[in-house]
Structures are given as structure tokens and as C-alpha cells.
Amino acid sequence: MDATTRNGAAAADGATVGEAAAQEQDTRTAAVGASAGEPAARDADTRRETAAGAPGAPGTAPAEQQRSAAAPGDTGAASAPKAAYRLGPGDKVRVTIYGDPYLSGEFRVTTDGKISLALIEPVDIADLTVPEAEAAIAEALAGAFIGEPKVSVDILEYRPFYIMGAVQNPGGYPYVAEMTVLHAISIAGGFTPDASKSRILIQRDGETGIRAGSTTPVQPGDVITVKERFF
Predict the structure, then answer these.
(1) Contact 190, 196 (CB under 8 A)
(2) Whether residues 102 and 153 fall in one domain
(3) pLDDT tens for residues 135-187?
(4) What are the C-alpha distances in Å from 182 to residues 24, 67, 84, 195?
(5) 145 and 109 within one domain
């Protein structure tokens, strides 16, 4: 083999060795990069998950936190009957006509369930809720050519409740919000010696003989009867 041929073969062998070394170097570099990148990626994922679960941090909170945030608070005992209360004879209300103090005032619901405002016929508000009464008054005023009145109704005094039977002082008494049968009996001076504490009845909205206990809520207009004991 002449010198030229030997030199060409040596060059080819050198190129092959160089390529192999370069490929091996690339493989080692890729492996090192992957090994270094995996922990970093895992650390980044961990940080994102921690941030998402942290209170007040952006992202999606755990299901338990979402349910806790959405759950309404415990309101405890029921509120006074004002929310769904239906007006009736004996209730005292304040009617405010915005922009017209002459028509505004305080009114006692009459025995036929009406209130009398100036310039219009008496308005029947018996058995209406407060929003319904506001709408009825506004309609009556509009019918009397008083523009588009804005009406507000507030309950100043509820109609009284009545207590009868084996109590010290039977009669009618002003209603107090959230009162119970025991409160009503206390207001009436307590039981008489011959009272039957287990035989208490309420008459309400036309229903008679509703059995009640000491913690039964009382509503305006209720008639409570405490029965006597059998001897």
C-alpha cells in the first residue's frame, strides 16, 4: 500500500473515531441534562401544587376548602315572624311615601283589615305580607293619579296575643318577637295551682286545638288556652 492510500485510510479511521466520540459526548450531555432537569421539574410541580392548595393562593383549592367556603353559616334559631308575617287587625304600621310626607304616617290596621291614607279610599292589607302591602298601597296611590309612588311599610307593633284558662291574669298582651308559650304564661302571671302544664292549646288562623308545649313559638293573634287538671 502506497503512502497516499495509507494516509487516506488513517484519515477515515480518525473521522470515524471522532464521530463516535462526539456521539458519546452528546449522549452523556443529554443524560446529565435529563438527570438534572427531572428533580427541577418535580420541584416546580411540587411548588405549583403547594401554591394551589394554600389558602388565599391562586389556583384550585381542595374540595374540602371549597365546601367549607360555600357552606352557609348556622343561623341558629328561626328569626321573628317578620319575614313571612301576614298583616291583620290590630297591627300598627308606618307607611312612608317617598317625596310626599303628607301622605306618610302611622296607621293601625282596623278590624276589617284596612288602613286609611289621605286622598285615597281605605286600602285592604289584611293577610298580606309587607312587600304585598307596599304593592297594594302603591297601586291605590297610582290609581289616584299620584305619579309612580315609592312605598315603604314597617311594622311598629304586632297585634296582641291572648291567653286564657288556668293562668293568673288571662287577657290580651302585646306580642314580643320570638316569644314562646312559656314566655306568654309568664307575662300572664304564671300558672294557677290547678293548671295542667301538659294540656295547652293554641287557636291560630282558624285552626283550633293545636297542642303546644312550653317551647312552642307564639305568633301575633294567637289565642292560648291552658287547661285545668282533672282531680
Answers:
(1) no
(2) yes
(3) 999 999 998 877 889 999 999 999 999 999 999 999 999 998 889 999 999 99
(4) 94, 39, 23, 13
(5) yes
